[in-house]
Amino acid sequence: MSRNLIKPPAQRGACWQSQRSIEVRKLDISTDYKLPKALASQLLTAKDATLRAAALNALVMATIPEGHTGFLEVDGEQREILTAGTHVWWQFNHTIKVTQLDCRLQNMEVNGQEILTKDRVGLRINLSAMWQIVDPQQVKTALADHKDYLYRELQLALRAVVSTQTLDELLADKNLLNQSIQQTVAEKAAAYGIDLKTVGARDIVLPGDMKAILAQVVEAEKRAEANLIRRREETQETRSLHNTAKVMEGNPVLLRLKELEILEKITGRISTLNVYGGLDGVMNDLVKLTDKCKA
User: Fold this and answer.
1) Buried b / exposed e across 115-136, counting CB within 10 Å, b at 16+?
2) By its UniProt entry, which Gene3D superfamilies does this protein fall under (predicted)?
């Protein structure tokens, strides 16, 4: 029996007659050139090495992973959209090509580039974008390189938005920058079957001299805030002392308690105290707020 068990179209084959049964199966592959899964598995996993080798030469196999969409092109014309799984075709008399697109959620990093703000400050901004293909057929038909297209659109939108804002505006509200870029690019990308999920500015890099200037500005602002807080505290303390003095002025008992409190603090901070006039001198002459108030 002939060892070449797969015959291409328009060829003849011969087999020796024997006691073995011989089966010849003819397949019309002029239009239906895709193999059923059972036949493809039988040929590609055959125990006969000659049959397996003949199958590999006669077949085209493609595996589409989960989350991807495949496209079958036959003789330069798209014929089928392929779902996840393994697909096998006869390649006789046809040029078969399979391409695929990743339809999972993906991330794109846009590297920083020198950009001038509205007030002519040069800076670098790095962008990060989350996107997903929602219409694979539209992407394949309209775009030669969808990743390059999206990257360029993000770059252009970043330049356009930054040029309309001052440095202070960018630093004050980075979310506004993100929203403006996403709004600009999302509409264009949607027309080609791409859904731009989020856009975020990861880093805003300033030149060295500008960093020093901003550091000085921030330091001056913080120092002014600290001085304002300190003045408020001093004013509050003065007001409290004034209120306390007015209360003590009309209350001799409270005034005496305050004198004893001060006396306690004084005696607690010194190691030796010379007393003249005995206990009465200590209690009445050492601390006298009334005379100071009158003075």
Assistant:
1) bebeeebebebbbbbebebebb
2) 6.10.250.2090, Band 7 domain (3.30.479.30)
Q: Which domain holds residue 29?
A: 1-101
Q: Locate 242 and state its tokens.
A: 């004034």
Q: What is the CATH number of the domain that holds 143?
A: 3.30.479.30
pLDDT in tens, 65-111: 999 999 999 988 999 999 999 999 988 888 899 999 999 999 999 98
Q: Are residues 79 and 116 in the same domain?
A: no
This prediction has a pTM of 0.65
- Same-domain check for residues 93 and 122: no
**Tokens found for residue 133:** 């293909």
Q: Quick one: which of 197, 162, 187, 188 has its CA closest to 176?
A: 162
181 touches 158 (CB < 8 A): yes
Instruction: Say how many domains are in the chain.
Output: 4
**Measured between alpha carbons, how far is 177 from 157 in angstroms, rounded to an integer?**
10
